[in-house]
């Protein structure tokens, strides 16, 4: 899915791959080496270069300059919504560091898509920044954006128009409300930095005090000084068996033998009925399985205009976020299932897919919103730890509609390449699907078709793969 990005460019996020495209006429060069040198030159002039995630490859494809980023070890910014306030604070410090760097020497694009989270370093990193060739076409107040980003991570809001209400918070605890109220009263980065650092110390001390108190309770609980009564030993009662018990045992044995004979007879009659039933009764007509309806091309188009972000179901949405935050996915699903998905925002999509996946309801989601199929495929191949091919096959089986994005993946994994290739013109292409199509052509021995497709895609790696296969 291509999304508008930085006014004149667009991005495509597929699995762990992030691609930024911009027309070469907008940057006045068609040479990827110029861009690479330009980025390195800018990085050398920046004090905190570690805040940036650099592209691993740069190519010119069909009059577009494409920057490729590998997000294998990173998460989207919305990951912060899953954390507690204490866990968020190191990331907030990282945001402040990024803003301070911008104030000194560099212009950044303050768009959530342009920021990724490094869980290992507990920091935030930036993808696109301005260089001589690569311009940032939007202007931002970096202090306001830092505050807004913090609010984004604690609420379900996509736009911050003022102090959020309690119902907007994912976790409406007094601690979270107080934090947001405090940062809204501050007016510069240094004061926000000092407040967060102080809060981190206070929370650490509070946690240490609670641990010490817990240790004291355990100590006194396990102390040997406490008096306890010695356990009273119970006298064992000795049973007296008389002659009548032998008579009872004999009667019981006779009864068991009779029951066993009755059981064998009943089993034999049951099996006879089972074998004769198909002969005695005429075979009924088999009920036809409900046919899957084919998703239309219009339904597959995933434009941001589909999601209206009306705010009509904000209370239910906030509750769903809270349930998902606490891993109560079945409860979150019950809430989301009642909401028309076009009333939501496009930024809610990742949470909706996660909840439906955990509740094993992805098939129902795709029947309702077929255009999310590409997002679902990406989610399954990056987030779901189960057998992805088997998962997609189950989704396809349980859907009431036929979605080419899902069928494409199912046919590829099962080796039904002719059926898979018949769907390619219905899909929006990305790097993964282009690779799958080349694999299918080569597996079928259609070298000429593979070469034509590789040349049309403009991907030098695919062209090289076809040439080497022919050798």
Which helices and strands occur, and which strands form pairs?
Blueprint: E1 2-5, E2 9-14, E3 17-23, H1 24-27, H2 32-44, E4 57-61, E5 64-70, E6 75-76, H3 85-105, E7 115-118, E8 123-126, H4 142-154, H5 174-185, H6 189-221, H7 244-280, E9 293-294, H8 297-300, H9 314-325, H10 329-336, H11 349-358, H12 362-368, H13 373-382, H14 388-398, E10 401-402, H15 404-414, H16 417-421, H17 431-443, H18 447-457, H19 460-470
Parallel strand pairs: 9-10
Antiparallel strand pairs: 1-2, 2-3, 3-5, 4-5, 6-7, 7-8
Helix pairs in contact: 3-4, 3-6, 4-5, 9-10, 10-11, 14-15, 17-18, 18-19
Polypeptide structure, described:
There is one protein chain. This protein is of the alpha+beta class and 471 residues long. It has 19 helices and 10 strands. The strands form 3 sheets. Strands 1-2-3-5-4 form a 5-stranded antiparallel β-sheet. Strands 6-7-8 form a 3-stranded antiparallel β-sheet, with helices on one face. Helix 17 packs antiparallel against helix 18. The longest helix is centred in the middle third of the chain and has 37 residues. It is globular, with a radius of gyration of 32 Å.
